[in-house]
Write a structure and sequence with these properties.
The protein has 6 helices and 6 strands. By secondary structure, the protein is of the alpha+beta class. The N and C termini lie far apart (about 75 Å).
Length: about 220
Amino acid sequence: MICPMPETTRQWYDRVSATIAAEGHRGWRCQDWTTWPFDDELAVRELQPPAPDGEPARQGEDGDCPLCESSRRDDPSDYVAWRDELWMLGTPFGPTAMPFLGFLMPRRHTDLSGLTASEAARMGELLVRLEQAVTEVLDVPRVQLYRWGDGNEHLHWWVLGRPTAQLQLRGTFLPMWDDLLPARDPAALRSDTDLVAARLVELAGGEALPEGLSRRLDADD
């Protein structure tokens, strides 16, 4: 039996472009969804052909990884809220509107496909326990878990929690709402993250790193 060759990227693009030219885009009545953030009609952009140079390099592929750098500072608690020997919980570099946003990442620099069996097993446990911690200590009914992987080679799971009963924010468009709504005070966000980290220690072990821990210890001395 001869197996057919898989469709190449160029074949995919040619087929999809020909269908768009003949039939248009598929109908998607997102404006009818109560969770859709926009009122006006949006125009679909023209589908661009595959980039002639292929996939661009991601951050970290050349050894210059901002996630690794931030976790190895003299005071990593500026960025890391929790860690164990394999994994760590990073905090946002930029603004966020939601009650919780954290990044579950391996301590070493690797992507999802590069995890060892022990790292993968621990990842599954931590994703479960992290949602449990967030929903137990914050006014959050559940969290959204997602991973893009196109910008940075270092694996990082987005863990995003929405406010309880904010039904308009349910589902697919929560990341859009997070970009659109006014940002939280960073100090208040980190304080809530530290509560989550403390609960995660109780549920899954590891250690919490409250922000500015080393500076506070120095002040006590």
